Amino acid sequence: MMGLLRLELRRNVTPFLLPTLAVLLWISPYGRSVTASAVWTRRGEALQETLLGLGPVIAGAAAWTASREKRARTGELLVSTARGGWSRTLPGCAATALWGLAFLSAATGFLYGLTAHTASWGSPPWWPVAATFAAFLAFCAAGHATGAMLSGRFVAPLTAIGAFLLLVVAGTLKSTGVAVGLVSPVGQVTDPYRALFYRTGHDLPAVELIFAAGLVAVALGPLALRGAAGGPLVRTAGIILTATGTAAAGAGLWLAGTGRVDAGRGIAVIPRLESRGDGRPVPYTPACDRGPIQICVHPALKARLPDVAAAVRPVTSQLAGLPGVPSRIDQRPVDGPHITDGVLSVPAPFDAYDKRGPVTGRAARSMRADTAAGLLFGAWDGTDPARQAAVLAVLIAAGDPPDASALPTRGGPTPAVLAAAHRLAALPPPTRHQWFATHLHPLRTTHLPPNALP
């Protein structure tokens, strides 16, 4: 058997596909995550998303290897060999899987090694790695079974296309919140940055792992039940393997069916696998700059602190030292700005952290708007015209455009609000700061008309 495996490793088609796999890997979320912030949970999720390209290719390669006997029309000739059909076909499947797993292991080692070198907080998540490898083996086994049962030169490309379409459908079901879609290895439903702040369980990758392991057995088991597969012992092994795989895949689907996606919190909940400590805050020491109003981020995002501080400095420099204004700002996964124990919490632009370079554009404007509204009023409802004008004036003075995108609220400012904001923003910075120092308390406690602003 080992000699046959070595022969299959030498003649396997997968090594010729490795350049294609490398290109698919780099244009996938894997490649984009390498240039983004080094966050363990984000990198683990990116590894799973590579299956959208790698899975169909390895399924097609496995189908091509398995259909070799049918393409060469050597079935009758091989009946007289000492080995049965099942023992002849398994080394080919193993060779394809070993080549593919070697490539995937190298990709995982590179990604996790780079993360270990640059990450400033956390440890490697191994559950996504296990789920990725199991799903990769499932693609390989399913492709091999398809190639062994069907004949024709178009079996391999059609298998790859079919696997891709099936993966797209499964990923769509998962991303839209359909419970059974949670067995799909692709399709983002969880917020990878939430795990930095709150404990999250491993129920989702565990379900993906159980389902993928079941598919491997379901794909390879029926190959032992064909007439030329082997003797009674082989058929018994095929029955046991098929039954076990069916049970595992069914268990995975059942567990997924009991789950739900909480889009608001960015988590997937599977009650049967939920841990008691899930959802508890994760203790950490934030990374802060040394400005007059401290800007603090999670230590895993420490590398982005200079960009964050530079983005909000045009606002904090105007409001530092005002009575009642917090002296510290924390970026957290919150819906809007609010003050707790004298610390202002503002939404973190996690999407911007997935991109290379400084935080600019809409993400920076939104961050400045949340910061201005939070520092001035502690929260933001956007219903008071004078408060709206005050926030807009700070943003105009910071260089943001005076339109609806500059305010943390729906709808654009009225002409009266816009005129009042321009008047206040046009004041010299010391005069504007003194006006806020005198009138900030009335702005917070009473409803003033926009013409009350200078």
From TrEMBL:
Transmembrane segments: 46-66, 93-114, 126-146, 158-184, 204-225, 237-257
This protein's record includes keyword Membrane: yes
Keywords recorded for this protein, A-Z: Membrane, Transmembrane, Transmembrane helix
Protein name in the entry: Uncharacterized protein
Organism annotation: Actinomadura montaniterrae
